[in-house]
Structures are given as C-alpha cells and as structure tokens.
Design goal:
By secondary structure, this protein is an alpha+beta fold. 28% of the residues lie in helices and 29% in strands.
Length: 138
Amino acid sequence: MSARMLLPMRRIGDCVFLSGHGCEGEDGKPIVVGHVGDSVTLEEGQRAARRCAQRMLEALECEFGTLDAIECVVKVLGFVNSAEGFDQQPLVMNGFSEVLVERLGERGMHARTAIGVNMLPNNQAVEVEMIVKLRSEK
C-alpha cells in the first residue's frame, strides 16, 4: 500500500479522525524508543505521550488555523510499547491527557483507552489516535 493512500487525518462532518501519531521530534525521529517498563521509565513514557499530544495539536492547528476550531476531544486511543508484565499504560497516557487539558481546558477532556503492545513503528514508546469534534460553522 502506498503511503499516498493514507491521510494524517480525515474529516467526516464535524468530526476529525486523526491517524496514529508517534513521539517524533523535529528531526522526524522518535524522542523515546524502547519498551516502557524495561529500557524506558514511566516518566520517559509520559514524556513520549506528551510529545504525541503536542504533534496532534500542531497538526490540527495547521489544518484548521486555530485550536479554537475544536469544540471538544471525543476519544483517545493510546498504544504503549510495553515490556512484558508492564501494566501502567493508563499512567503513561496521563502525559497525553494532561497536555490536552493544559492547552484546551475543559474542551480537552475525553474518553480514553490505553493499550499495551509489544512493538510500535520505529520502536517508538507511544503512538496515539484521536477523534475531535469541531465547532459548527455558522
């Protein structure tokens, strides 16, 4: 499948579905690699999750010109590259959720699922999908 067939986000009506965004830095490389609970600490995992949130908000701001276009964050699905036996995925994803509430206030509150996986692309520590609802255009 060609990468040109995939979109970083897809708008359907007032909802925007964001594809999985990782914790890449400005150079395009993940800022945290490895398994949380092994080579990656909980705090490093939270930092990776924060970076995912920052990247997703930057993508939305670029697409819609302002974060004021967001009525609310509906749902977040977080994937945490987890060591065997690691069960603190919700704590890792708290880093993501904190950024949304810091930047969007109450509009950033959301439903969330945090899942542990045994590997993510480029061995990054966290990848996140998100659904947001836009304000109705008047």
